[in-house]
Write a structure and sequence with these properties.
With 304 residues, the chain is an alpha/beta fold. The chain has 7 helices and 7 strands, in the order H-H-E-E-E-H-E-H-E-H-E-E-H-H.
């Protein structure tokens, strides 16, 4: 069955709407397009470029949006703040590490000094009553309010005592020049029969001028050596001109400001090593009353 051929396009007219009202917008648009083309042709012939239309966006082409610029600025601030925070953290970390290392060393030296004074061990040091090179009395009371370094020897010692007294002089000078620390150096003879105040005064002229020389009777020297745990072998009854040997311990005894023993420095230390040891003990020194408070406090376990 053959049907009618359908047209490719057929405008359907709405019911009740005149045909001329439908075609009017189309004809107007065509007229506007034609006028626009004529104007473009006229501008082209006159050499005038047609101005480009501005984009619908209010932001010019190629410009950075304000929001993005704020983000960039804030990102820069964040990066700068982060850099400052890293530097500050590094500085604080270094300071804290240095503080804890120093405190750890101080506590270790304080514990060492307390152990040297500790219960159950023979006490080093004690009362003594001697005389200096001026013939004046010198007792343990003169050890207070200053750090002291005591050495036991005798003026007829051939080599060890001179070497140790030379080292003592170097220690005193280095403590003064390097750390501005002054301690009281004391030389106590183990040979009271031959080492009179005048002999000791003449002997010490070859060494540091600050060294204080002490002597006394045989019994008082023996008692002093016993209190400091110094080996003493000097014979009691010695005749004038008699030659004899004197054995003694070769140590420096470091005493605190209360006249109490801190540590002993043997020949294993050279002058500089002894200076650093003394400096550490002086920095770590805590008076007896404060030490007792520390041990009885809640953090007393740190000092045990």
């Amino acid at each position: 069955m053959l049907g009618r051929a359908r047209t490719p396009f057929r405008l359907r007219t709405p019911l009740g709407v005149p045909l001329r009202q439908i075609y009017r917008p189309i004809s107007i648009n065509r007229v506007l397009l034609q006028e626009q083309k004529k104007q473009e042709n006229v501008n082209a012939t006159d050499g005038v470029e047609t101005p480009k239309r501005k984009p619908l966006s209010r932001i010019p082409i190629g410009a950075i949006p304000e929001a993005n610029s704020q983000k960039i600025g804030s990102s820069g601030n964040v990066e700068f703040s982060t850099w400052k925070a890293v530097v500050l953290f590094a500085l604080v970390g270094t300071a804290v590490t240095f503080f804890f290392k120093r405190e750890k060393k101080r506590l270790e030296l304080q514990k060492e000094a307390d152990q040297n004074r500790g219960i159950g061990k023979p006490l080093v040091g004690g009362p003594f009553d001697l005389i200096d090179t001026n013939g004046e009395q010198f007792t343990q009371e003169k050890l207070k309010d200053k750090f002291s370094l005591i050495y036991f020897g005798f003026t007829h010692c051939p080599d060890i005592c001179p070497d140790e007294l030379d080292k003592l002089g170097l220690m005193l000078d280095e403590l003064k020049s390097k750390y501005n620390i002054q301690i009281q150096p004391i030389f106590i003879t183990c040979d009271p029969a031959r080492d009179t105040p005048a002999v000791i005064e003449e002997y010490l002229k070859d060494f540091h001028p600050d060294i204080i020389g002490l002597t006394g009777t045989y019994d008082k020297i023996k008692e002093c050596c016993k209190n400091f745990r110094v080996y003493f072998s000097t014979p009691r009854d010695v005749k004038a001109g008699q030659d004899y040997l004197v054995d003694h311990s070769i140590f420096f005894y470091l005493m605190d400001k209360e006249g109490e023993f801190i540590d002993v420095l043997g020949r294993q230390y050279d002058a500089s090593g002894a200076v650093e040891k003394i400096k550490g003990h002086i920095d770590a020194y805590v008076p007896r009353d404060q030490r007792n408070k520390q041990k009885n406090s809640w953090y007393g376990f740190l000092f045990k």
